[in-house]
Specification:
heterodimer; A: three-stranded antiparallel β-sheet; 7 helices; B: 115 residues; mainly beta
Chain lengths: 205, 115
């Protein structure tokens, strides 16, 4: 090796400084990755579904539109339809959530058939909903005290204009919203339904 | 369907009542009810605004599994919140409701001590 092929110490220092300057310039020009889905247009069009074992992103290939409400992953028992950001944005007029405490059998029936009158004649021909998940949990706890059947919380996200059409009342000191039998088809058309995999803790009713 | 499971009455079913369902023409249900049916009952309570407030109960039919619209049967009634029902006595009448819709009525024929 000749002396001319070995960089001098000064040249090495200049090389290090040049590389450092280039790295600093790259850090300024390249944006950081989005910190959340809120800033990601693609994520807003997807449907996220929460499952006890994983978070499934149905993804942009399952784009949803206002009024389209049921997206179900067939291999997952309690996965349904989603927190439809795009649907909410497209619906206009806002949306609201209404809640029911349901047995495992009714949860399966909702996933398969939507909301309908109980085929066993043991409940309303329409449907009652609570105005909060906590009240639904209180109803569920009362029912559990009667039949010892585990229950699930079902959330139906619907246009607020639909909620405005429902009748309201009070039963056992809790407010309910009632869907008439004639309104069930409309409920199933507009609702984005999800079955929670947890129940909010509430004090004894 | 299901009636067999209801042959053992829960201890807390402490009201016995004659229950009658309205017909669809009277505003009642189009289909019958089965033992274990749950609904709102109006036992005479009203809220501060004068609106009816309801109390839920489960009905266990006695002698039959199903009660069709327009028919009557005896039933054990299990209030979900028994304290709210404490003012009722034999002979008292209450309504079976699905929200504001009245689908039947009942007359108390016997009271059992609360467990």
């Amino acid at each position: 090796m000749t002396a001319s092929s070995v960089p001098s110490a000064t040249a090495r220092r200049w090389l290090v400084l040049l590389l450092a300057a280039l790295a600093a310039l790259a850090a300024l020009l390249l944006p950081a990755a989005p910190a959340s889905a809120a800033g990601n247009p693609a994520a807003e069009k997807g449907v996220g579904a929460v499952h006890s074992e994983s978070i499934l992103s149905v993804g942009v290939h399952e784009c949803i539109a206002a009024g389209q409400h049921r997206v179900r992953a067939p291999s997952q028992r309690y996965l349904a339809s989603g927190r439809c950001v795009a649907a909410e944005a497209g619906a206009g007029g806002g949306s609201s959530s209404i809640f029911r405490a349901v047995s495992g059998g009714e949860a399966d029936d909702i996933a398969a058939n939507g909301f309908r009158a109980a085929p066993n004649g043991r409940s309303f021909e329409g449907k009652l909903f609570a105005t909060s998940a906590e009240d639904a949990a209180r109803y569920g706890r009362i029912n559990y005290g009667l039949d010892q059947q585990p229950f699930h919380i079902v959330e139906a996200r619907v246009p607020t204009s639909f909620v405005d059409q429902l009748y309201t009342g009070t039963a056992d000191r809790m407010t309910f919203l009632g869907v008439n039998p004639e309104q069930l088809a409309e409920l199933n058309r507009v609702a984005s339904t999800s079955i929670w995999d947890y129940v909010p803790w509430v004090a004894k009713p | 369907m299901g009636g067999e499971a209801m042959t053992v009455l829960p201890l807390a079913a402490f009201i016995e009542a004659d229950v009658r369902l309205l017909t669809p023409e009277q505003g009642g249900r189009r289909s019958g009810i089965w033992s274990g049916y749950r609904c709102n009952c109006w036992i005479g309570h009203v809220g501060e605004d004068g609106e009816r407030t309801y109390n839920d109960a489960t009905f266990y039919l006695l002698g039959v599994d199903e009660l069709p619209p327009g028919a009557s049967a005896h039933a054990r009634v299990q209030p979900h919140n028994p304290d709210e029902w404490s003012g009722l006595d034999v002979g008292a009448r209450f309504e079976l409701c699905e929200g504001p819709r009245v689908i039947g009525d009942a007359v108390i024929v016997k009271l059992f001590p609360a467990p």
